[in-house]
Amino acid sequence: MKKIYLFVFIVLSILPVARMVGMSYDRASNDDIDGVLQLINTEACNDSSKIVIVPERFRKSYVEDAIEKGRLFVVKNSSRVIGYKKLFCITDPNELNYILTNELRCVEADAQACAQGCPVSDNNGAKMLLWVSPTFEFEKTNLEMSLRTMLSSTLKSTFIYTGSDFTCQKLRGCGVNKLLTQEALESISEDVIADIKSKNSRYVALVYGLTKANALGISGDHTDILGGRTRSICTHFYRFCNNITRKLECASDRELLISRYDAFKPSFDPQSLEYAPLPDSEAIPGYGYVLAYPLSKKN
């Protein structure tokens, strides 16, 4: 009987890996436009309460624009697109200001972080301190600058945006999005390094938004700032930043600062003739996040 249980356990353990055989992860090209659109129109649109889905008449131009700018990444099973992710280094200050102000809601005069947390380690035991403060002042760290200062125009920082990702229902829980995230981050690493050098950045920051359903997870505990998808996002970003600092030969305090803000997921009427999100009263409540990794001078 024990042998049967062991066999079943082994089969269940290797099944997710087996299901990923034959999949490819890459930056999207024009050849992927139809595949991404098909996935959006047949599956992703059903998740519009959790992810951003633009009106039908604008979807093709939305995908084309993201691909042209090198911001969209896809995972394919043979030639079929079964997942996508939008991720890029923000180099346009006007675009950055729009994202921080209108999507993440973190630079308004009355913006306040809405949760507190404490230092934690990632799942592999690596040293990762997540300092969370509702007042933007991280007294427990040796940083002289607060997150509020980092977001201001007076301090040069490198920003990365991630969002608008979707994996087909049948392959969720198989590590597909994890591998796609790793590929996307690796693909933009040179862009990030170039931006850090050109600005002499003091921070690398990852910005993103989540609906409360994706942010709170099964527990629904709004006080857990690492709930839902955030812990996984932190782990990916932390490891990415460690690799960046090695390439730059920089020292690092090996800390990750995180703050979360009340926001809304941009929601659209699928039949709308205008490319304009619905008002907050008709939008999905969520949070805007800023993860900040401090950089030091070269060793």
Describe the structure.
By secondary structure, this protein is an alpha+beta fold. It has a domain at 87-294. 34% of the residues lie in helices and 22% in strands. It is built from eight helices and eight strands. The protein has helices at 2-19, 33-42, 59-68, 93-103, 147-151, 176-199, 212-216, 230-248, and strands spanning 23-27, 72-77, 80-90, 129-131, 157-167, 203-211, 255-265, 284-294. An eight-stranded mixed beta sheet has the order 1-2-3-5-6-8-7-4, sandwiched between helices. Helix 2 (33-42) crosses helix 3 (59-68). The longest helix is centred in the middle third of the chain and has 24 residues, at 176-199. The protein is globular, with a radius of gyration of 20 Å. The model is unreliable at 1-19, 115-129 and 131-145 (pLDDT under 50).
Secondary structure blueprint with pairings:
Layout: H1 2-19, E1 23-27, H2 33-42, H3 59-68, E2 72-77, E3 80-90, H4 93-103, E4 129-131, H5 147-151, E5 157-167, H6 176-199, E6 203-211, H7 212-216, H8 230-248, E7 255-265, E8 284-294
Parallel strand pairs: 4-7, 5-6
Antiparallel strand pairs: 1-2, 2-3, 3-5, 6-8, 7-8
Helix pairs in contact: 2-3, 6-8
